[in-house]
Write a structure and sequence with these properties.
The complex is a heterodimer of chains A (390) and B (363). Chain A has 390 residues and is α+β, with helices and mostly antiparallel strands. Chain A has 8 helices and 12 strands. Chain A is globular, with a radius of gyration of 22 Å. The chains are: A alpha+beta (390), B alpha/beta (363).
Chain lengths: 390, 363
């Protein structure tokens, strides 16, 4: 179950192996050749492709790229839609026809989420590819990982079930080779609720300037305290989180990526009730996350990006989406995360989420000037590029 | 392009809903209240739905074994009070005001859950009470739990027959999903099939009742959130069909918990706050809200929690309270669980709590 996203990514990669784009391990000369892609069509000529991507593209993903004169990319997006739809239906129908059997529901739900991710991302990527006119600038938007980064900000949470509203958030991230450690906290300004979390990520596959993919193994510990409601929630989780560079599907998609993640969390609920001794409950949570993101360029400094995502977890402040009708509570929440850097050191993070609650807020990010001394493949690729330039 | 795209995405996120149950809570408040033809009917705590009000007939659908209602009349009238979904031994009595009550023969002798009385009321308010004679008894009694019938309505009759064969069942609790989509036709069909059952069926709604109009259930079967007592045992049924409770319902719940703190108290709803097989997420939208809710039940000394939604049978504890999921009404079953269609039977003793429970397999 946990390797499903990786398998999907590999499947997707295999399906577009005939792409004209060089692999990330290609020699610098090949990468340089790839950089000499034809200049994108002028903005005026993109109106029709963009309209095609939005409207007929809703049904047939990739239509925009066919209209743009990029049939290979259009075909790849259509293939991605087909694979996504197939996986989504396979997972969803398994859930329906097994009556959400305890023996099948975890892999089936993971497949459903991943299928939805591929399906929806192919649509968004089609629009992105027809709108984006500066994909060449993406090569300058890459930034090596830094040794440390810190973030401090404010979040407003609107949840009719809880009295808390305002939170201060803090996160520090320290990276040592392929390992990063990120302690973080959410603190209600009323002092009644808090969430403490520490996350350790081990990067199994690095990103590079030519290929913004990665594979991370994430282990997290979380403790949430709800003082007025007299309970705490403490748990551990393990997940595999991947990013796949959509430039592999076509040159117009350079600068966009898909994220897929899956995992499992186990938590215990401790009730601190006055006058009543209550045994703890155990809770199991399926983790699943899909997202479509773009690297920001233009006025923003390297390392800036925006991500629209779906997160299946139901155990955080935003939890699952409540809807009118039959399906309320089943799905998780949606979010938009943006990181905009003004220069090499300072930036802001914007965060918006909608589920059982609404969350919105911003943080100030400060990151170190020092690049990671043991950054592996990214540094090697950069060195090769510099040597080739000399 | 980027700022516009970000604003667009934020607008999409705002389309979700934080209180999908709000409209249903407002309908809860209206249940049991009706005015017309110079008459006003007001059912205490909304424990019966006024199905029709005309001269001379008042038709009520009971949501509890016993309830009180007030008839306000402009002038003296000869009325007929038709109560559906009531205990076969229920009797109508005058609590206050002046009225003459005459029991009438059942409209259909094969339907013991429908009873009719002639009530001659005077000008002003007349308070009436419907209750079986043993309503306030402290003796143990049995009740059943049946949920998640949905598209299996065509064969629900054999479940009803099996319930009818059980000795001493006073009523059946329904933890939602009576229909597959909550359409008027499906609710009518459910009501028609229910005529076969020899005891009343007191139900809250499930997520499948929300498929068309969210409050159509209330027109037929009354409130989604209600509380009643029988033999000194408290019953609370909650509408969590949207995988959450409305904030207003928490206020009601606090009052019901406080009133029943020292009594045997059974709480039933459709969706379990926590799914014992959590990765399936057949549970509430927010695990934090689930913990908040379960903590309140534990503080209120609730004795038993009953759920549907998952089409199988599970016995577990939540916040130390015994819990059962019984979704055996015939909707697509959870495969490979070896359970199949079933209902549960409980014995409640006002002195000592839930003294027995059984799973009765139908297939």
């Amino acid at each position: 179950m946990r390797t499903a996203p990786l398998a999907l990514a590999l499947l997707l990669q295999a399906s577009v192996a005939s792409s004209a784009f060089p692999s990330p391990t290609a020699p610098p000369a090949a990468a340089a050749a790839a950089a000499r892609t034809p200049s994108p069509p002028r903005a005026r000529s993109r109106l029709l492709p963009t309209a095609a991507a939005v409207v007929p593209g809703l049904v047939v993903h990739g239509t925009g790229h066919y209209a743009l004169g990029e049939p290979k990319t259009g075909r790849n997006l259509l293939l991605m839609q087909g694979i996504g739809l197939g996986i989504f239906l396979a997972g969803g129908l398994t859930i329906v026809f097994t009556g959400a059997s305890r023996y099948f529901v975890a892999p089936a739900a993971t497949a459903t989420i991943a299928g939805f991710g591929l399906f929806s991302t192919s649509y968004l990527a089609d629009i992105y590819g027809t709108v984006s006119t500066d994909s060449g600038a993406v090569r300058h938007a890459y930034r090596l990982p830094t040794t440390w980064e810190t973030e401090m900000g404010y979040r407003r949470i609107q949840d009719p079930e809880f009295a808390y509203r305002d939170f201060l958030v803090e996160r520090v991230s320290r990276r040592i080779g392929p390992l990063s450690l990120s302690p973080s906290g959410f603190f209600s300004t009323r002092g009644d609720t808090a969430r403490y979390r520490i996350e350790a990520q081990y990067r199994l596959v690095d990103d590079t300037p030519d290929d913004i993919r990665f594979v991370d193994l994430t282990f997290g510990l979380t403790h949430q305290r709800y003082r007025p409601e007299h309970f705490t929630r403490s748990g551990a989780e393990l997940s595999l989180d991947t990013r796949y560079d959509l430039a592999r599907l076509g040159p117009t998609l350079r600068g966009s990526f898909i994220e897929l993640g899956a995992g499992y969390a186990l938590a215990r609920l401790d009730y601190n009730l006055s006058g009543v001794k209550v045994p703890r409950d155990l809770d199991h949570v399926l983790l699943g996350r899909i997202g479509f993101g773009v690297m920001l360029r233009g006025q923003s400094a390297p390392g800036s990006e925006a991500l629209v995502y779906y997160d299946h977890r139901h155990d955080d402040y935003v939890a699952g989406l409540k809807l009118h009708g039959i399906g309320s509570g089943v799905i998780g929440h949606f979010g938009l995360a943006t990181r905009w850097f003004f220069n090499d050191s300072v930036g802001v993070a914007l965060d918006a989420q909608a589920g059982s609650a609404y969350l919105a807020g911003a943080s100030l990010i400060v990151r170190s000037h020092e690049y990671l001394p043991m950054c592996g493949r990214p540094c090697a690729v950069l060195r090769r590029k510099e040597e080739a330039a000399r | 392009m980027k700022p516009r795209a970000i604003l667009g995405a934020i607008s999409l996120l705002a389309l979700s809903c934080l209180r999908p149950t709000e409209e249903r809570v407002e309908r809860d408040r209206e249940v049991g209240q009706a005015t017309g033809y110079g008459l006003t009917v007001s059912v205490e705590d909304g424990l019966a739905a006024v199905r029709s009000l005309s001269t001379p007939l008042i038709t009520l659908w009971g949501s509890a074994p016993s309830f009180r209602f007030t008839v306000s009349s402009l002038g003296t009238r000869e009325l007929f009070v038709d109560v559906q979904n009531c205990l076969p031994d229920a009797e109508l009595q005058v609590v206050s005001g002046r009225a003459l009550i005459t029991p009438l023969d059942n409209v259909d002798a094969d339907i013991p859950t429908r009873k009719r009385w002639q009530v001659d009321v005077n000008d002003g308010d007349t308070q009436l009470a419907l209750a079986p004679q043993d309503s306030a008894s402290a003796e143990p009694f049995r009740f059943a739990l049946l949920s998640d019938i949905q598209e299996a309505i065509d064969k629900v009759s054999d479940i009803y027959d099996r319930i009818n064969d059980e000795d001493g069942i006073r009523f059946v609790l329904g933890a939602g999903d009576l229909t597959s989509g909550g359409t008027r036709e499906q609710l009518e069909r459910f009501q028609k099939e229910l005529l076969r059952l020899k005891v009343p069926y007191f139900a809250t709604l499930g997520n499948h009742e929300l498929g068309t109009r969210p409050d159509l259930f209330h027109d037929y079967f009354g409130r989604g959130n209600f509380h009643f007592r029988f033999h000194d045992v408290a019953f609370t049924l909650l509408d969590d069909g949207s995988a959450s409770l409305d904030p207003t319902v928490y206020e009601w719940l606090d009052g019901w918990l406080e009133a029943s703190r020292h009594d045997v108290h059974i709480v039933a709803m459709h969706i379990p706050p926590l799914d014992p097989f959590g990765v399936r997420n057949g549970a509430w939208a927010s695990r934090a809200e689930a913990a908040k809710f379960l903590g309140r039940l534990a503080e209120g000394h609730v004795d038993l929690t009953l759920y549907g939604h998952i089409h199988s049978y599970y016995a577990f504890d939540n916040a130390g309270i015994p819990a059962f999921i019984s979704g055996g009404g015939g909707a697509i079953p959870e495969r490979f669980d070896g359970i199949g269609r079933h209902f549960m039977v409980f014995t409640a003793d006002p002195q000592s709590g839930i003294t027995a429970h059984d799973v009765v397999r139908v297939d």
